[in-house]
Amino acid sequence: MIKLIFGYIKGIGRTKFGVLDETLEELIEIAIKEALRDANLKVEDIDIIFISNFLYGIIANQLHLNTLLNNSVNFVGKPIFRTESACASGGSAFFQGLLSLKRYENALIVGVEKMTDIDIKLITKALASAGKIDLYFQEGFIFPAAFALIAQQHMIKYGTTREDLELVALKNHENARLNSFAHFFNKQVSIEDIRNSQDICTPLKLYDCSPISDGAVAIIITRKKSSSRDIEVIGSSFCTDYISFIDRNDFTSFTSVQRAAAEAYKQANINPEVLDLIEVHDCFTISELIALEDLKICIPGNSKGLIRSGAINRNGRIPVNTDGGLKGNGHPVGATGLAQIFEIVTQLRGEAGERQIDTPKLALTHNIGGFGSSAAIHIFKGNK
Amino acid sequence: MTEYKIIGITKNFIASVDHLETPYFLLLLENDKKYLIKKSFKEYQIGDTFFINENIEKENKKNNLTIFFFKFQNKI
């Protein structure tokens, strides 16, 4: 089999996630400068830039972010593109960045979102645009409601319980507690806090939902490996499905994820059993369980066994969301997919400090947009 | 009139700009593998059935209106 060469990650940088004072431009600047420093590169070394963002056009009435980016770091004269695939914008931008390495030597991908200074009622409406907007206007169909219905279908079909969802939230908050970049860094959360939290959309409660966060992440990729800290990308796939929730045949799995994962496994020439670490898109706790099934970490319906047994805990057989996931790390939409890659690179380099897992070699990121309407899957190989 | 069965229900407590009154229910309806989402202020059970006039629905969707007929039925 011919080995595909996608590229190497040379530099990573990010801001803290949470309720931040910095402007969108300032967040971009912090992340990019940190990534350049990490890669030991200068602005002039970057050939092409991709900026991932979902909401700024809707909530701040500001588009043309590819040129706005020059206010943060001066890339004037270079090609810059904005990428948007709802919550999978980061994974989508990374996918496109890798494609650009066929022509360019070094690419920079930056993802950013500034969400917390907007009224929550407006944010809820803006986020609904990741699905078919008619259903929001006509029926008040919002994202937590969609994932609540998905959770309910999973419970009916497979016997997944509220307690399983609580364990997912608990695990991810435990991991986030050790991540100084995380929205919920140092926050001690108990199972009682989770169980007694307010109803959002039954059966989902507050602690089943990822938070509204600000933040930015930048990743620098390169065509050739030049350092032992460079991390190889060995699988890269992006698949789509219908945008509307009601155009699906199955509410307990996402076809886009299954297809993208199958393609990425084939590219990497691996089976899911050999993965050492996974970052999945837990926008809601049920999404983490479905991801594990769609990624073939277990058979459909058996993800509850993985969370009950502790297999996906940080010290388990296959740790999932060691940075806290979207649930604990935060979910600044345009930056989310890149934050997952940031964590994988940190772990594969052995630089994750207190939350470092034992000598990981192969890792995967799962980043979805909408109700799995877009799915980006990437597989990475470390040097340890 | 087409008969739909309720296969999923969530009670939503989150208000949005265009749907300020909460809580309300969102019903996942199914008829022969065709699905609909409907808003209701009345509580239903999974397994309940009711009828939807699809001609009115098509017309309302074209005009971007809410489905008056359905909501009227729910409030009885």
As a percent range, the share of strand residues of chain A is: 15-25%
H and E string of chain B = EEEEHH
Q: Could you name the ranges of chain A where pLDDT drops below 50 across 5 or more consecutive residues?
A: none
User: What kind of sheet is the major sheet of chain A?
Assistant: 9 strands, mixed
Secondary structural class of chain B: alpha+beta
Widest β-sheet, arrangement of strands of chain A = 3-2-4-7-1-8-11-10-9
User: Mind summarizing the main beta sheet of chain B?
Assistant: 4 strands, antiparallel
- Widest sheet, order of strands of chain B: 3-2-1-4
- What is the helix fraction of residues of chain A, given as a range? 25-40%
Distance between the termini of chain B: 18 Å
Radius of gyration computed on alpha carbons of chain B = 12 Å
Order of helices and strands of chain A: EHEHHEHEHHHHHEEEEHEHHHHEE
What is the helix tally of chain B? 2
**Number of DSSP strands of chain B?**
4
Distance between the termini of chain A: 24 Å
Classify the secondary structure makeup of chain A into a structural class: alpha/beta
Shape assignment of chain B: globular
Name the helicity range of chain B. 10-25%
